[in-house]
Amino acid sequence: MATTTHTNCLRCGRTLTSAKSQATGYGPTCARHIRRAQATLTDYKPHQIASARELIEDGAIVPLKSAVFIAVSTDGTETYKTAPTGCTCPAGLKGSRCYHQLAARMLLAA
User: Domain named SWIM-type: which ranges (predicted)?
Assistant: First the structure.
């Protein structure tokens, strides 16, 4: 499994200095904001919340525009455009709420 080192926070763009922050892609303040936002989003199933957290922790969801993100699929072979209201993943195209949308909501709420 390849690891990615980030030099800037994926949320605010500030330079990351600690090894932990560089590994996760988020500085301590942004990580704290994301954790707080996660606690407020309780209308998803537990496995969706776990998958969204993992997506954020792996730095596999990156802002594209103000409310649009690029998210990596579970197996890492595809990318999807996602927003809090929709996603181009198979579940999102069927009209279901997916964990990519939840991850986008978490990041925007932070």
Answer: 68-109
pTM: 0.71
Please report, for residues 32, 42, 46, the alpha-carbon distance to residue 64 in angstroms, rounded to integers and kept in the order given: 22, 25, 27
Q: Which of 77, 76, 37, 47 is nearest to 59 (CA)?
A: 76
Q: Which of 2-6, 35-39, 63-67, 75-79 has the lowest mean pLDDT?
A: 2-6
| Cα→Cα distances 16→31, 47, 74, Å | 12, 30, 26
| pLDDT band at residue 103 using 50, 70 and 90 as cut-offs | very high
**CA proximity to 11, closest of 21, 1, 25, 22:** 25
Q: How many residues does the chain have?
A: 110
